[in-house]
Design brief:
This is Hexosyltransferase. Helix content is about 45%, strand content about 20%. With about 525 residues, the protein is an alpha+beta fold. Among the domains are: about 130-190 and about 205-255, no CATH class; about 265-475, Spore Coat Polysaccharide Biosynthesis Protein SpsA, Chain A (Alpha-Beta Complex). The strands form three sheets. A seven-stranded antiparallel beta sheet has the order 3-2-1-4-5-6-7, with helices on one face. It has a five-stranded mixed beta sheet with strand order 10-9-8-11-15, sandwiched between helices. Strands 12-16-13-14 form a four-stranded mixed beta sheet. Strand 6 and strand 7 form a beta hairpin. The termini are far apart. The relative contact order is 0.09.
Length: about 525
Amino acid sequence: MMFRRGFILLLPRLVGLLVVACCSMSIVYMLACTPKGDNQQLALPRVHSPTVKEGYEAILQEREEQDRNYIISLKKQIAQLKAELQGRTEQLKNMQNQYPDSLDIQLDHSKPEKAQANLLAFLRSQVDKAEVHSGVKLPTEYAAVPFESFTLQKVYQLETGLTRHPEEKPVRKDKRDELIEVIELAVGSLNKPDGVSKAKLRVYTASDFVEGIYRTEKNKGTLYELTFKGDTKHQFKKIVLFRPFGPVMKVKNENVNMADTLINVIVPLAKRASKFRQFMQNFREMGIQQDGRIHLTVVYFGKEQMNEVKSILENTSKSANFKNFTFIQLNEEFSRGKGLDVGARFWKGNNVVLFFCDVDIYFTAEFLNSCRLNTQPGKKVFYPVLFSQYNPSIIYGHHDSIPSLEQQLIIKKETGFWRDFGFGMTCQYRSDFINIGGFDLDIKGWGGEDVHLYRKYLHSNLMVIRTPVRGLFHLWHEKQCLDELTPEQYKMCMQSKAMNEASHGQLGMLVFKQEIETHLHRQKMSSKKT
């Protein structure tokens, strides 16, 4: 509307300027064609000169040529002014067509039904533009918008800044009210399903809420995915909601049955038998005893410590009556990508969820359900951001005061950090892994293969779910960065090593340890004097 009014006001001025320009050019032309005064007349040939006739003809021809060229120049200038005026007019029309007045379309109070329909159509177009029903191709790993996860009590946020905690109660009123509203709407939607008689309805409450994830795309809206307990132990209800910068809209209400969804945990390994024993304790408790729908594939490189690893695996199998495992031995140099790729392709059963794992990872049964709920063949892959543990010797000071492993796994800024630069732990269906082309087997040693696979998924039409999870931990261990690594791999390894040790504050206390001790000594001496 503003463009149309501006154009109407501008048009008379442009026409007036064009008329003034034409008049000015006409006056100049008349002055140029007026005979010059006596003092300025050209020297004419003398009357009795034999060349008088030819001289007059030459002068007249020259003046006629000058006038003709001047007229042609004026016509060109007028044509240019007309073309410029027409171009400005077309530009204004295009801008009006490209940016129609939204008030005319959506807030036409004289036609409320049409206004409501247009508004609803706009909001639904926001859902279509957002990454709700399917993924979009992204240029790099930095273009992905991560989710944040939450429960009834806490929010697990990734972009924490320097003054915020990785896990906190939603104390900010806007965030608390937002999540409460979403949970209440989801509960209301579950208690009013479409096409189900009220006699069969189960009454859902907020206590049935398990966990949720959400993310905001700045130009579209906020997407929420909430999981509730289902009718049986392995059944869940998933509600997908979307806030397109306006009222939350129900996008989907579906039953999710995970009772028969098997997870194949693939672990590449070379040596590290003691770490594998610790891993199997976690696997037995969480994977076998609590979850029960799990398979383990160990891809072992070399022969050193292999018998010890096989013995640990066989002892767990006997004591827990667990037969769902596969042991693959490769006589070659360790390559994480090669091990995961071989383990994934070795599977011959039905389509299965693959969980690419490392031996220094601790997971809970709740995480395994998150792994299932956030993967869907042909649609979604899951890239959880795990919580990485700091060096317990630095955190707790003395070896005697270090608590048990389960007591160490607390999400606080003093105990660890969200490993947002790591992409190695991932869940996806085997069919999606095979279709995407698997790992780059030319990458050897440590690092790089996980980012390469992550980029493949980003460049596809699959939706990548990237969110911090509360049930997946990277256990601290001393990291060795070998000289054989490429410069890029060595840099990544050293970055990971530095990040693993302690928080900024704790490392600062170590750096300034001597200064702190000197200060305490001075205070002690000062108190003795007084």
